[in-house]
């Protein structure tokens, strides 16, 4: 007996047509069908690779959900879809600038956040990532990363209607909204988890729940511990003795994507979010979404297929929605998620970690190597470059890359951990260890930019280091992302230690409340806050006027000085494809002393160049001298 034939695309189309509402205008429906024709074959083949031939019924439901969601989509968002379709690389502009904050910590509520919009405009933000703002357990919520309902805003922050209003207001100010799609896990208070706990078989199949230790033991032989301070291994025990998979905190239950109903349910939550006006979803913890016995359960091929399938669903129902990948893993794996048909954007954890590495070592070899060989991305995609996030800093460089430079990865990570938690003589950094795991030697670092860069230790070079770090994310291409408050030099906040729900998670040290005092001094360069802010503002301003910084193209520039990072940004002088070609050369001194880039090294460049940051023309014939932590952007 052969299995029944796959329902042909025509049958699905017929089902769709009968689901068309009378109120849907012809043009709207025609555009949906056009996208259906273009995308369905891809979605169908992804679905059958993941779920096998018997999954057509579930696929049909997914497509019907997409059709319903498109018909629900507000007209103003359909207009955004249409205009972004005309300019699909809108996010590659050199005018893009991101900011990230917690709604409660930064502004109290969604309404409070609206009052910050004038500041965001003034700063030049075009992208705002609001940390998770959905209903979550009151006490333990991992900063909102344990979601109890994807369709409700945390009542202490506001309502879904206020979120939708906010997206509109942001859009009018030219700011795209980014929110998390936390799809690897739900909180243990989510309705699905409650039902699973109560023994409802349909919902037990949404999670990885086992009656005893047999399977947990088997899986734990090969998976790494992510939050060992919270619980050993990857499973926690329920009151009734069963075990449930929790990669992160014990109250974050991993969803079981081998069940197609989980895919359908989460695709529905994603489209609901998209219809609130979200422009970009940050795909949380992408590396972990597929599990397979005997593997690390990270970065498996099916994780990519799932993301591509989610992406295909978006193309049907919310075509302008973009995905940003949060894969904080080995650099070889990070890039695997970046593709027009998968995640168009991605955090750049390697660049982030290596900026800190260069600040600590005062040497640039690893960072220069990463820019040379790990920076290029496929067309239609971009990095999100950042100095630090709400999370820890992990040293995710490749040991093989480091070995080529004579650096031993294991020893070097130990050095970096010691340096950044101030266990190294003379360190300027005041970080806090995160998930220090003596068994594996693993450890990561928490802290604000300013505390890690020296401001908390009253190091004279603190301000200059903060500017230097940001100058890299502002000039390497892609979207630079500021952790809001860092632009006024906010310091570590140790008050988390007094809160039992936070004390065990040192990442809270880097998540201070809105630093009102620092903001009040931001225009006074005589203060640290003002020196950081005015310096950063200048860099942002110059970048906005430097079209060469659009896109992601970067070419190496060898400075022949181990302390000075160099690269070139070949581009154009204007926004038009026929604008004149032009190149900016970047030099950045990571040493505490002044450094030369000698005449021979610069001999291939023109005699003079425009000094974009300092103003005026620089003479390059005799070589250049750069002050400690100084940066040059030269237009040739
Ligand atoms: C992501 C978030 C992190 C959270 C984890 C689990 O890595 O950035 O803050 O703890 O996912 O959701
Ligand atoms: C998240 C966590 C971080 C962890 C990483 C693992 O980013 O916040 O602590 O190292 O996931 O991929």
Tell me what the structure shows:
- This protein is an alpha/beta fold.
- Helix 15 (349-361) runs antiparallel to helix 16 (365-373).
- The model has no long low-confidence stretch (mean pLDDT 96).
- The structure holds alpha-D-glucopyranose (2 copies).
- The site of one alpha-D-glucopyranose has 8 residues, from loops.
Total beta strand runs: 25
Structural class call reads alpha/beta
Shape: globular
CATH hierarchy, class of the domain at 92-184 and 348-546:
Alpha Beta
> CATH superfamily of the domain at 92-184 and 348-546, called what?
Glycosidases
Strand order in the largest sheet: 1-2-5-11-12-13-14-17
- Helix content percent band: 25-40%
- The low-confidence runs, each spanning 5 or more residues with pLDDT under 50, are none
β-strand percent reads 15-25%
CATH architecture of the domain at 92-184 and 348-546: Alpha-Beta Barrel
Radius of gyration: 25 Å
Bound molecules: alpha-D-glucopyranose
> How would you characterize the largest beta sheet?
8 strands, parallel, barrel
Short description, anyone?
The protein has 636 residues and is α/β, with parallel strands linked by helices. It contains 23 helices and 25 strands.
Helices and strands in order:
Blueprint: H1 9-19, H2 26-51, H3 56-72, H4 75-86, E1 98-101, H5 103-107, H6 110-114, H7 117-123, E2 127-130, E3 134-135, E4 149-153, H8 160-172, E5 176-181, E6 185-187, H9 191-197, H10 201-204, E7 209-210, H11 214-220, E8 235-237, E9 243-245, E10 252-254, H12 260-274, E11 280-283, H13 301-317, E12 322-325, H14 331-334, E13 345-347, H15 349-361, H16 365-373, E14 382-386, H17 399-404, H18 409-420, E15 432-437, E16 442-446, H19 449-453, H20 462-475, E17 479-483, H21 516-520, H22 528-544, E18 555-556, E19 564-572, E20 581-589, E21 595-597, H23 599-602, E22 608-611, E23 617-619, E24 624-626, E25 631-635
Parallel strand pairs: 1-2, 1-17, 2-5, 5-11, 11-12, 12-13, 13-14, 14-17
Antiparallel strand pairs: 3-4, 6-10, 7-9, 8-9, 15-16, 18-19, 19-20, 20-25, 21-24, 22-23, 22-25
One alpha-D-glucopyranose binds next to loops.
């Amino acid at each position: 007996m052969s299995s029944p034939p796959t329902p042909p695309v025509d049958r699905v189309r017929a089902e769709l047509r009968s689901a068309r509402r009378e109120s849907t205008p012809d043009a709207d429906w025609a555009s949906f069908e056009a996208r259906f024709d273009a995308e369905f074959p891809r979605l169908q083949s992804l679905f059958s690779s993941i779920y096998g031939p018997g999954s057509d019924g579930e696929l049909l439901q997914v497509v019907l959900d997409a059709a319903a969601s498109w018909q629900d989509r507000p007209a103003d968002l359909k207009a955004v879809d249409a205009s972004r379709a005309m300019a699909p690389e809108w996010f590659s502009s050199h005018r893009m600038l991101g900011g990230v904050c917690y709604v409660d910590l930064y502004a109290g509520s969604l309404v409070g956040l609206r009052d910050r919009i004038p500041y965001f405009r003034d700063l030049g933000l075009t992208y705002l990532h609001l940390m998770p703002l959905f209903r979550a357990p009151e006490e333990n919520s991992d900063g909102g990363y344990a979601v109890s309902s994807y369709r409700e805003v945390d009542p202490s922050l506001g309502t879904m209607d206020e979120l939708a209003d906010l997206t509109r207001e942001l859009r009018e100010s030219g700011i795209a909204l980014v929110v998390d799609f936390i799809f690897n896990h739900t909180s243990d208070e989510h309705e699905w988890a409650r039902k699973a706990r109560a023994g409802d078989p349909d919902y037990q199949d949404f999670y990885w729940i086992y009656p005893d230790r047999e399977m947990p033991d088997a899986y734990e032989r090969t998976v790494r511990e992510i939050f060992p301070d919270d619980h050993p291994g990857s499973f926690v025990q329920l009151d009734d003795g069963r075990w449930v998979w929790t990669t992160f905190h014990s109250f974050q239950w991993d969803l079981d994507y081998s069940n197609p109903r989980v895919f359908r349910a989460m695709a529905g939550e994603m489209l609901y979010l998209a219809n609130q006006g979200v422009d970009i979803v940050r795909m949380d913890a992408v590396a972990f979404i597929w599990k397979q016995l005997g593997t690390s359960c990270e970065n498996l091929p099916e994780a990519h297929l799932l993301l591509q399938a989610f992406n295909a669903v978006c193309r049907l129902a919310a075509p302008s929605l973009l995905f940003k990948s949060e894969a904080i893993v080995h650099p070889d794996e990070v890039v695997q998620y970046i593709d027009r048909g998968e995640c168009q954007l991605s955090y750049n954890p390697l660049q982030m970690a290596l900026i800190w590495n260069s600040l600590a070592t005062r040497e640039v070899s690893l960072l220069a190597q990463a820019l040379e060989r790990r920076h290029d991305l496929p067309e239609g995609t971009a990095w999100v470059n950042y100095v630090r996030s709400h999370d820890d800093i992990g040293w995710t460089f490749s040991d093989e890359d480091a070995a080529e430079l004579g650096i031993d990865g294991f020893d070097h990570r130990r050095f970096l951990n010691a340096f950044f938690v101030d266990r190294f003589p003379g360190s300027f950094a005041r970080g806090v260890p995160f998930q220090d795991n003596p068994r594996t030697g693993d450890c990561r670092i928490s802290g604000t930019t300013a505390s890690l860069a020296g401001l908390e230790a009253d190091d004279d070079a603190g301000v200059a280091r903060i500017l230097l770090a940001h100058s890299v994310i502002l000039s390497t291409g892609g979207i630079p992302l500021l952790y809001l408050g860092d632009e006024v030099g906010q310091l570590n906040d140790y008050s988390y230690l007094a809160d039992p729900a936070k004390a065990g998670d040192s990442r809270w040290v880097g998540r201070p409340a809105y630093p009102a005092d620092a903001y009040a001094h931001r225009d006074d360069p005589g203060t640290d806050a003002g020196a950081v802010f005015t310096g950063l503002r200048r860099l942002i301003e110059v970048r906005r006027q430097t079209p060469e910084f659009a896109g992601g193209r970067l070419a190496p520039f060898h400075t022949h000085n181990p302390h000075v990072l160099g690269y070139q940004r070949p581009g154009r002088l204007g926004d038009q494809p026929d604008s004149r070609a032009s190149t900016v050369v970047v030099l950045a001194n990571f040493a505490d002393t002044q450094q030369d880039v000698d005449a021979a090294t610069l001999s291939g460049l023109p005699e003079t160049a425009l000094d974009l940051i300092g103003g005026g023309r620089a003479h390059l014939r005799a070589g250049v001298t750069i002050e400690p932590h100084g940066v040059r952007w030269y237009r040739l």
